[in-house]
Design goal:
Helix content is about 35%, strand content about 15%. It is α/β, with parallel strands linked by helices and about 425 residues long. The chain has two domains: about 170 residues, Aspartate Aminotransferase, domain 1 (Alpha-Beta Complex), CATH 3.90.1150; about 250 residues, Type I PLP-dependent aspartate aminotransferase-like (Major domain) (Aspartate Aminotransferase, domain 2, 3-Layer(aba) Sandwich), CATH 3.40.640.10. Helix 2 runs antiparallel to helix 10, helix 3 packs parallel to helix 10 and helix 12 crosses helix 13.
Amino acid sequence: MTFSKNSKELFDRSLKITPGGVHSPVRAFRSVGGTPVFFKEARGCELLSVEGKTYLDFCQSFGPLILGHRDPDVAAVVHETVDLAWTFGACEPYSLELAEWITSRVPWVEKLRFVSSGTEAVMSALRVARAATGRSKVLKFDGCYHGHVDSLLVKAGSGLADAVPGQAASDSAGVSAAVANETIVASLDDEIGFERIFNQHAKDLAAVIIEPLPANYGLLIQRGLFLRKIEALCKTNGTLLIFDEVISGFRVGLQGMAGLLCIRPDLVTYGKVIGGGFPVGCYGGRHDLMDLVAPSGPVYQAGTLSANPVGMRAGLKTLQKAEAMGLWKDLGERTNEFAAGLESDFADSGLRLKVARFGSIFWVHGETSVPIVRRLSQFADDHAPRFKKVFHACLENGVYLAPSGYEVGFVGAAHTKEILLKARTTIARVAREALS
């Protein structure tokens, strides 16, 4: 394959035929400025640009690559599967193996259905919730992102942080007021406010949906007490609780946040890690709810490429290897050491920067008046412009962070302690230079 070895030239060409020159908004560098880097190859924790420059990657395709790019064990399974079949459009054993693996380890997922993205999973889970309850409204939280489902593009995630002013009630044009009005929005980390809003709409609420670890508009670590309050009100009022664990599922632990919190959601959505780097999502939960899905029940949902064999086998191998390695504990310790050290380096340099972390996820953000940022109103006023400077300084020095101050970073198995120490030294140095 031949192509230009210049990212700017490739981006200029792309602008002519693709909206914004990209196939997902945050890739466009809109919030940080400049021209996106075009990459031609990835391996482990590294990206190789078309110019031939190597970058240490903390984006990790926004989370799926818990083992790193092109893990050799996963790659072997992928190559083997490609030689067997690309897609069937029929029953096959590969999705069954992955489904059995998940349901045997996550007790609240009694049945599940594979789809091709997190957005599809959320859309389908909401449909099930409405069918099960006979209610129409859904309550979400300000700053939680649940994919580009029409009704949930209201006060959503990082890709909308720089939305065009003057848009309607939804964060996206093209979503009718009637659809947007089916969604009620509450603030994170506010039991009193949530209970007041919930009680106003309880009889109409089919579901409450939340990222138990909001990680798409910064890393907003929620208190267990708050999440359990949500669980209790849902149970009392016959409202379904949906945990969106597309990011946190199989990333922060074997059973995700639900397992760490000992909360049993009615429905849960997964994505990213369960596909091992391929487009896979799923929704699951109580068997009585999932049996409402066609062909067992009246809730229609289908997908030509759902349960694609390559994604199924790549996902299963990823999860099996992570479990065998005891990876979640190790990554949590590695990430905490890296983030704590980086935060200490920032403090030593007099920089007003903090590093939030949970499991193998971290987020560099501006210093605030609270020890832990849990909701959008607590963001530092100058967070975005300061991150912009740090981002470009890191990029210039071969460290690739997600191109938005509201996106998180991910540590994977390929990020060794030695690599993380080197990265910490580089980030601390260039941040000091950029912000001095």
